[in-house]
Specification:
heterodimer, A: about 160 residues, mainly alpha, 8 helices, B: about 350 residues, alpha/beta, seven-stranded mixed sheet, six-stranded mixed sheet
Amino acid sequence: MEENKKQKENEKEKEKVKKAEKAEYEAYLKQFTPKSKFVKNGILAFLVGGLLCTGAFILQTQLEKMGMDTKTAGNVITLLLIFTAQLLTGIGVFDRIAKFAGAGVIVPITGFANSMVATAMEFKSEGPVLGVGAKMFQLAGPVLVCGILTSVVVGLLYYVIPLWL
Amino acid sequence: MAINKLGKQTLLFSNKPVVVGAFSTMGTKEGQGPLGKWCDRILSDDKCGEKTWEKAETSMLEETMSSAIASSGKSKEEIDILFTGDLINQIMASSYVARNMKRPFIGLYGACSTMTESLLMASSFVNAGYADYALAAASSHFCTAERQFRMPLEHGNQRPPSAQWTVTGSGSMIIGNYKEPMGKRIPRVTHGTVGRVIDKGINDVNMMGAAMAPAAIDTLITHFQDTGREPAFYDMILTGDLGVIGKQVVYDSMQKKGYELGSAYNDCGVLIFDQSQDTHSGGSGCGCSASVFCGYIYKHLKEKKLKNVLLLSTGALLSTISTQQGESIPGIAHAIAMSMED
């Protein structure tokens, strides 16, 4: 028993030393590592993402003025955004826009569309079923799972909280 | 008693195997870089007219190896053994090339350290008399590495400034026994230092240079201690693919440990691209050091613009599984010393 305890303590000590070494090395690395341009990237994402959504909204109101109801107009715009992102991915332009605009085009539904077409194109060489079929959701899958899970949690809270009030 | 071992980890090639031929290939983007003019072949199409990226890399490697054999004036049948490796899962490209070449083959995996790993093996075989001519080669391809280790090519994302760019390229050298009629304009392999795996706990895949630098430092110091040589002995000390950050770490740490590397030190990953090519911290991959050693370095040695060089390919021994499980990135570096005799 005593020996076991000592061994465990020794191991803990070793782990501590390792962690300290890592922290020391990381601190040393900082002087050589260029930082990401968070402010510039953030402003660009805000501008591009904002413009994209404003444009989509203007188009939607135009459609509504032409007599389409709000829900249908919304769906048409969503489809249009998805189609455009997929087309741009297919002709190899989307990644260049995303490099510049970052979250501005990745966070809206355009990013989701891109992640599916990009994987489908990439894994075409492994066949239509096990390649495209299986890998198409490689990036979009986790987004869906987390999205649905979040909506379940929010739904439960929405149901439970009024019961207490 | 290991008669050809110096100090802790260094092999002395007492029979001085020579580099009888070499060939280097670069992709389109790499060819536009500052070292493109010393490269033997620049791809006009990175897909090499093939259906898949993997086939493209295989075809690039095969062409490089065949051309290296041709440049040595030997026939394929005279090559006793092939040592090659690449980055595709289970070194797919190397195995397929070896299938087509029909020569005895030992596949190597040392991540991006493969070029000096294969040179170490080929030189050892020739030095020991197990082969008259041995081929050493390595390759990597941006598109096969991206899909395996990172994201699909067309996926929109932003890479951090510390990220590196996998080089599309390959290099191959033919190591042979020295024979008098060869003359003196021929580089000799004099020493090799086998590296240890060093892990400082870095687990950010966008910090490869920082993860590999400690291994390069360890191998460099061991090499100097084992051989008794000073950094000043070499006209050029070249690491494989540490990139901008890793290069600074090596330079600074070596200085602190009392080894002044000076202007002789550089890194293939830093040299291969210029700033305007927007690769962030520089090049990486087996093809980075392979194409630079077999192109730029080999030609400078042959033209006697360089006399003594120390080449260190550096490898990050991670896998897609290890990174997903949060494991840290072990690094390795092997060194090869080459000299031109007066």
